[in-house]
Structures are given as structure tokens and as C-alpha cells.
Amino acid sequence: MRLGLVLAAIASLAVSPALAQSAQTTAYDAVDPFIGTGGDGHTFPGAVAPFGMVQLSPDTDILPFKQSYARAAGYRRDDPTILGFSHTHFSGSGHSDLGDILLAPVSGEAKLEPGEADKPGSGYRSRFSHDGEVAQPGYYAVTLTDSQVRAELTAGPRTGMHRYAYAKGARAQVLLDLRSSIYNYPGKVSWSRIRVAEDGTVTGMRETRGWAPGRQLYFALRFDRPMVGKALYNKEDAVPYKGFAQPGRSAFDRAQMEGRALVGVFDFGVIDGPLVAKVALSSVSEDNAVLNLASDEKGFDFDGLRARSKTAWEQALGAVEIDAPAPMRKTVYTALYHTLLAPSLFSDVDGRYRGPDNEVHMAQTSGGKAFAFHSTFSLWDTFRAEHPLLTLVQPEKRNSDIVNSLIASQAESPYGILPVWQFHGQETWTMIGYHAVPVIADAYLKGIRGFDDKAALDAMVKSATYAPYGGLSDYMALGYVPIDKEPEAASKTVEYAYDDWTIARMAKAMGRDDVAATFEKRAGNWRNSFDVKTGFLRARKSDGTFRTPFDPTAINYGSDYTEGNAWQYSWFAPQDLGGLVGAMGGDAATVRKLDAMFDFDNSKLDYSHAEDIAGLIGQYIHGNEPSHHVAYMYAYAGQPWRTQERLTQIVGSQYKPTPDGLAGNDDLGQMSAWLVFTALGFYPVAPGSNEYVIGRPFLERAVLNLPNGKRFTVKARGLSDARPYVGVITLNGKPLTRGFVRDEEIRAGGELVFTMSATPNKTWATGAKDRPMSMTGYGR
Question: Most exposed: 25, 145, 407, 548, by fewest CB within 10 Å?
């Protein structure tokens, strides 16, 4: 059938019942924060504003020696009790920390220890039921069975608010536990302090030596009712009381306490209505926490803060309009929600923050322009799709703030390099690469400004040439990282090479041809660890030989690869996937290798020792990031319809609108960003290329309301389970024969229309000129 007849036939299709039904639910109401709180999603259900400094959420089982990978976000769906509500959480991380400043409402006499989950009444923790538990963007509520308290939480950019409704006639108390942490262990709290001012304001701090060493966090807490009593305790054995006590005065009268195991209990007696508590955080000082607390001028108006948070979420989620059946709509809108949680705001209302050098800084560019400092950068994960998505769904100011935060962190780093995995301003040195580099380059190449591009490029080059880091000295000398000198050498070689390519791209765009030439040459280093004889990426030793024995299925931490094996990492050359097709032996050989990966029989393999290995489809591992672009590889080998098949398989098996609906930890939004892009029908395989590889859509209609005010509409005509293939594509009414769409085409606004088919179109986007960008080899 000719193209015109196909389009006419599809245009006559009526709007589906599912599409009409979905219009009745707002984007805000479609979000389900419980998705990912079970399984290995590691998300939290609590209250947070978009990119908010405060993530106010319930903590379930975070006692010493009982911490586990499953509770990295503090909340586990199948846990039976809640200890209380703390103010800092990661969303979907593969590591644990935070859980700062835990409050627990208590009816009657307060017990100072959490107690045991299987022994009701043994401590201040309480059982709860999912019946009546509510989670919405910016709001959470639960009834604590043992405490007989209905607890509600909401949050603004720098403040969190609690509202506790006690049983009639009950004595209302609130316990503050500064011992409690996610990934807790004895000695994690180096020091802490609680002060109670005459006006009832509670301030304090604690320093922890957890994932990020020496992290300082300050807080300020106010209640909307006067206390009738207070008591401060240091529960650490053999530690003398330190504070302002006078002989003969009881703990009830103390106004300050310092130590490593502090608990405060604040008594309000029998009250005739709910109790509201407002909390603010700061990395700078207690005074700055008070300043942040005062910045919310609405006082203790819980409903007002909840309404403002809802408005902020409606605006943020409104960047994408989705028409799809309810389950898919919920799944994708929740994914979008999860991409808007981090990197989180970290500077105070006066612009100050504590940086990686543990000094206080002002968030200002080299030109004196103020910006909002952000932290919590899981860059090994988020450079792939999370940050590229933010360039489309968040204002330019947010993206420039993120880049300015990275540049400032490099300037303040004792090592002079960009963040690797940073939270609360502190470096953890987790994962590999210098993946702040593609985040900056991708933003710059897409036209995002508001930062010093020269300072940015200098920071990128310094990170890529800091010889003591991760085998870079040998990488620069040999063209690869040698495994006999550096662990995970194969992964580091190819990830450095990709990052180098993005430096070259940005340098060339800035007219810095000298820098571009150096790093474009380094971008080809992926070949130096690719073994054409076996068709796998392999670790090489200093003498140039590949390490043996070699097992492409082996996964061990600290081995040749990072959280993966040769099957996953052999596809990592995003800048030159056409060249990789050539190295694999051409189109047919590449497709056979891809099929072998997806169809691999894992029945005789045991990966139980590797926590991050989840969501397996053969040797494809969707629950971990190195695999995330692999389904799109078929498009580089001239068979884009196979990409469409694999995407159908992945989306159908790895995402569900249920608590266990994420196959692996969300990694600060990367798993979710993959779904948002894929559902739209395209994906940023190589951030920095300004191209998105076309896959297939999973939404009947979607509109990107872009930061520049333009609208880009994606339609999937005839979409159904029986029509999973792309038959015809038009862009702004004209046939699109290539397998990619350019960033500039999206930002210009317009309409991308997929006509879906029951059978694959094996002629579309198969020619070399129609394949996505590649440095060398096949494709352009």
C-alpha cells in the first residue's frame, strides 16, 4: 500500500476507549510513589518537592546489623513496622546512607529504644497497615497502629512538615532520635547535638562517617504548640554527659546535649487537635537551618504547604502529556516523577552550602551570578538517560544550575576533579569514569547556557587527565587501562573513551580544535580492549596480552568489569557503535551476537552474590545500566525492527504499575528515564551526539511541553499488542526514512507520527546513511 493510502486509513481510526478514559485522570493523580518500594527498586514513598532538599519518608527496619541492600531507601514494602519519619533519602540507589533526623510520634510514655519488630510495644516503633496508607507526589499518610496516631507528611524545597493526629485523651509526645540512620552501624554517628531554645525551637546537628565520610547536617525544628516538658538523653554507655546541666538538675531541665547517641522527647500533654512539626535542614549551620525554616513564611499551614507542593508537581509533570491505557500511563508518569527527585537542591536560602572540601561556599558563578547548588549525583547511571531527559523536561535554569554545581564541585574538590558519585556535597568515589563530563557536554551541545563554558571545559579536561585516578596514567600512556595495575580495567577503558569523545565534541563546538584533536584520538581507545578473535571486550595486561582464563559470563566485584561481564560491556562504545558493528564482523554477525545475548540460557549460572544483577533476559541485564542501550544496537546493524521486538520484550517484563514494578534499583532516576524515553519512541544512546535512536512507542499520544515553549507531539496510530512494529514514520508530515531524530528537530516543536504494524518493515532505516551517528565504520 502506498504511503498516502496508509496514512489515510490510519487517520480514520477512532480514539480508543482507553485513551478517552485516561483523560479523566490528571498527571498528578496518575503517579504512584509506591512503585519500586518492593523488589529491588529501592524507591521511597514519602513526601518531597521536585528536586527538594528534604525527602521526608517513613523508615521501616534500619537497626544496627539488620541493614540490608533491600532497605537502601529506608522503606521496604513488606516490613510490618515503622520506626518513624526521617528527612533524607536516596531514590533507588544501589547503596545506603542518609535517614537523618528521625521523628516518631508517641502516645503515652515514650520508650527510648526502637524495640523489636516482632515484639509489639517493645519500643517506640509501631505496626502499620497498608490500608489507609497514602502516597502522592509531595504527600504521604499512614496510621500507626500501636501509637494510635494518624501521621501525615508534606514537603517544600527546604522544609518538611509533619501533622500528627493523636487518639482522643492520649498524651502527645514526639521522639527525636539522632542515632538512627539508613545503613546504620555502631559508631556511624561521630558527634551530634540537640539544643532547645526558650521559644521551643529545637536545633542540632550530627556528623556521620558513612558512605560519605565526615558529612555534617544541621536541622531546625518547631512545633505549633508549646511544650509542657522535654527530656534529652545520651544513650551511649560510659560517655559522660556534656552540656549545660547544673548539679541537682534533671534531664528534663537541660537545654542542650552533645554526644554520639542522642535522643530527645518533647511532651505536649493531652491536646485537642493535631500537632504540626516543621523541620528544615542545612549543611552550613544551625542558624542557617533556622533561616531555611523561616523561609517558609506560611508558618504551620500544613494544607497550604501540601497545596504548594502539589502545584509544583503538577507543573513539573506537565512537561509531558500522556495518553495511554491506565496501567501504562501510571507506570510512565511514575517513572517521570522518579526522574524529578535528584540531583537535589543543597544550597540554603542565602546561597551557602558545604562543598567537597568541607568548607562553606556561596553558590555563585565565576562571573558573580547566583545559582542553586545541587548534589546527589549518581553519574555512572544518570549520564545515560536521566540528565538528557532533564534537558527536555526541565527549564534551562535547572539544567544550568546542575552544570554550575558540577563546575563548582570541581573547583572546590581537594583533587581538582568533577564529581564521581557525590551526595550532600561529599564525594564517595563510588563507580568509575568521569561521567560528569558527558552531562556537561550534552547540555552545552543542546544549547543550554548560563554557565562558564571555558571553566566547564577546563574542569572536564582536568578530570580526564588526573593521573592518580582509576588508572588514568596508564590509560594515557598505553591507550587502555591494564588489569594487572587497576581493577575493572576493561570497563574503565571503554567508559573513559566515551567520556573523552564528549570532551572532543564540546571542544570542537567551542573552537578549541587542539583539545578536540587530543580527545577525539582518545575516544578510539575502546578498540584497544576489544578482542576481535572472540568478539568480546576483554581486560589487557601491561604487556599487551589479554588476561586469561576468560569467561564472558563471570560477574565478580573488582574483576575485569564493573557490575557486569563481557556480555554486557562488549557493547559499550556509544560514540562508535557503527565501528563496533564492523569489529564484530558486520551486520549479520552483530545481530547473531545480540540474539545470543538475549537468548542465553542462564540456568547453570548463579549471580546471587552480585546484588546489582537483576532483570535478566539472557545475558542482557536491564536492572543494571551497562545494558541500557543494547536493545537499540540492532538499529546500528541494519535491523531496527529487531530493536522494536526487544523493546517490547523489555518493557513487558521489566516494568509494572506495582510496588515490585522495577526490575532493579532505580539509580536516582536512570531506570525510570529509560522508560520515559523508550515509551516516547526514541532514546539517547550516545549523549553528546544530539541524536535519539528511534525504537518504538508505547504511548498512543504524548506531548513534550519543552522549556522553550514549543510543543513536540508523538503519536502512535494503530498501537496495540497486535501491532508492535513500526510501519511508517513521518516527521512534520514528511516521511522519515532514517532511524534517528535530532535534538534540534524536537526542540523546534512539531509532530512525530508512528504508524504501527502487525509485521515488521524490513526496509525502513536499514541503509548506512539512515543509521544513527557513529565515529567510524558503519553508519554516518
Answer: 548
Q: Identify which of 754, 685, 672, 683 has the alpha carbon closest to the alpha carbon of residue 713.
A: 754
Give the burial class of 240: count Cβ atoms within 10 A of its Cβ; 0-12 exposed, 13-18 middle, 19 or more buried: exposed
For residues 528 and 480, is the Cβ–Cβ distance under 8 A?
yes
CB 496 within 8 Å of CB 478: no
What b-and-e string marks burial along 521-547, b requiring 16 or more CB atoms within 10 Å of the CB? ebbbbbbbbbbeeebbbbbbeeeeebb
For 364-382, the pLDDT digits (tens) are 998 889 999 999 999 999 9
Q: From CA 252, how far away is CA 564, in angstroms rounded?
A: 55
pLDDT average, residue stretch 272-286: 97
Assign domain 45-314 one CATH number from 3.40.50.720, 2.70.98.10, 2.60.120.620, 2.60.40.1120: 2.70.98.10
% of the chain with per-residue pLDDT over 90: 87
CA distance 744 to 404: 23
Q: How far apart are CA 84 and CA 102, in angstroms?
A: 6
Is residue 16 pLDDT above 60, yes or no? Answer: no
Yes or no: say if 204 and 195 are a contact pair by the CB < 8 Å rule. Answer: yes
Give burial (CB, 10 Å; 0-12/13-18/19+) of 388: buried
Residue 1 pLDDT exceeds 50? no
Give the rounded distance of the alpha carbon of 131 from its chain centre: 29
With CA atoms as reference, report the closest residue to 667 among 733, 622, 722.
622
Sequence-separated (6 or more) residues with CB below 8 Å from residue 761: 641, 725, 726, 727, 728
Helix axes 587-598, 577-584, angle to 10 degrees: 90
Other CB atoms within 10 A of residue 682 CB: 22
Residues 144/294, Cβ–Cβ less than 8 Å: no
> Over the stretch 376-420, which tens digit does the pLDDT of each residue have?
999 999 999 999 999 999 999 999 999 999 999 999 999 999 999
Cell of 708: 522553550
259-279 mean pLDDT = 96
Query: Helix (H, G, I), strand (E, B), or coil: what is residue 124?
Result: coil
The structural domains of the chain, with segments of one domain joined by +, span: 45-314, 320-770
Sign of the alpha-carbon torsion through 641, 644, 649, 652: negative
Equal CATH topology for 45-314 and 320-770: no
Burial of 19 (0-12, 13-18, 19+ CB in 10 A): middle
Longest dimension (CA), the chain: 95
Question: What is the rounded distance in angstroms from the CA atom of residue 289 to the CA atom of residue 286?
Answer: 5
Q: Are 97 and 423 in contact (CB under 8 A)?
A: yes
| Helices H / strands E in the chain, number of each | 21, 39
Question: Which CATH code for domain 320-770?
Answer: 3.30.2080.10
pLDDT tens by residue, 721-748: 999 999 999 999 999 999 999 999 999 9
* Listed residue (734, 648, 729) closest to 692, CA to CA: 729
What are 161's strand-pairing partners?
A: 154, 278
Greater confidence (186 vs 323) lies with 323
Q: pLDDT value at position 779?
A: 57
Q: In whole numbers, what is the pLDDT of the chain averaged over residues?
A: 93
Tell me if the pTM is above 0.70: yes
Q: What angle do CA 508, 403, 49 make, to 5 degrees?
A: 150
Sorted by sequence, the CB contacts under 8 Å of residue 600 that are 6+ apart come out as: 553, 567, 618, 619
